[in-house]
Amino acid sequence: MHALTPDDVARLVNEWGTRARAEAGEDADPYPEPGSVGLPDGTEVDVLVRTADRLQTVFAASTPEQRIRRLDGLIAEAGLSVHLHGDDAGRAREEWEPASPADAVLVAALHTLTDVVVARGAAVLGVCEGVECVDVWIDGPRGRPRRYCCSQCGGRVRVAAHRRRNRLDER
C-alpha cells in the first residue's frame, strides 16, 4: 500500500469516522469513493470505518504526549514490520507492512501520522474546537497554530463570540 498524504488521513477520519459522520448528521448518507483519499476503489467500507475510528482516538487525545502514546499503541496493535529497500544510488526508503492485509489502510495512515509527528511534533494534530464539530485536522508547517478544521468553523465561533459580547453590552 502506498503512503497517504496528511490531508488524505484527515479526510479518511472525517468522511468515514463514526463520530464525525454522526456529528455532521451524515450517518445515513453514502460514503465517498475511497479514491477521494488516495485509496484504491473497492476498498471495503467497514475497513475504512474501523480505521477511521481507531485513528480518531489519536487526534482526540487532550495532550501531545497522549497523542504520541495513542499513536504508538496503534502501531504496536497493528503488528507491522518495517523494511528498508535500497536503490542503485544507495538511497534507502522504508516500507511499512501490516501483519494482516486487513490493516493495510491503517498501516499506511500510521506511517503518514508518524512521519508528521516525528518531523513537527504531536501538537500539529487535533480536533476542531468549533461548536458541534468533531472533524480532525493536521496543521500545516507555517502560520498560527490551528484550532478549527476549516475557516467556516472558525468564523462561526468568532461570530457567536461577537454576538455574545454585543448582547452583554446592551444590558
TrEMBL record:
Under the heading InterPro entries, the entry gives:
ABATE, ABATE_dom_sf, Znf_CGNR
- Annotated segments matching region Disordered: 21-42
Residue ranges occupied by any Zinc finger CGNR domain in the UniProt entry: 125-165
What protein does this entry describe?
Zinc finger CGNR domain-containing protein
